[in-house]
Amino acid sequence: MARPTKQSPERGNARTRLLEAARDVIRAKGFAGTSVDDLCRAADVTKGAFFHHFESKEALGVAAAEFWTQEVTPFFAAAPYHEPANALDRVLAYVAFRKAIITGDLAEFTCLVGTLAQEVHASAPDIRDACGRSIFGHAATLEADIEQARRDHGITTAGWSAESLARHTQAVLQGGFVLAKAGNDPDLARESLDHLGRYIRHLFHVAEERAA
């Protein structure tokens, strides 16, 4: 998932500023590469304020993953990919929307919870689980449209489910973000989403021209 970034002009309380700093700095530097001092500096708070709100950097990591989910949920709920009347068109529009918001620096469009999960899945299980709730929760928002598209196209025994395809969209997204980082090239993530769109059209036996 992605997209909210940057602090608002009217900054909130110290806890909110620290969470906003975590959202942006960790995407740029990674969790291990981000120090408490980095976060305090970005948030313009004291280290005492940090430890008043969070007992450890790991606790901040859990809260940052939850904060990310709270930010992106309304962002995606209001996105235009929900507008098409046809369920498959909505699924394809989701893929197109995800491609469209790959703009700016790598740290601006990549996913905080994906970044965290890749880095701390073994060393910080509480952060990993918070990231999992975020990623799988977002995937679940696609399931109803995918299932409706399956019914509309008479697909009943294709060896896959709405749930598995919804999860696959997130695998492609997160993998695309990794490729974009590895190649320092956002087009690598966009390319992955183009292939995802083709794959979905193939699953539903629709022509290539039926783009989102």
From TrEMBL:
- State the DNA-binding region(s): 35-54
- Every copy of the HTH tetR-type domain together lies at 12-72
- Reading the lineage from the top rank, the first entry is Bacteria
Please identify the protein, giving its name as recorded. Answer: Transcriptional regulator, TetR family
Q: Which keywords does the record carry? A: DNA-binding, Transcription, Transcription regulation
Report the InterPro entries cross-referenced here: DNA-bd_HTH_TetR-type_CS, Homeodomain-like_sf, HTH_TetR, Tet_transcr_reg_TetR-rel_C_sf, TetR_C
Does Hydrolase show up as a keyword for this record? no
Which molecular function terms from Gene Ontology are attached?
A: DNA binding
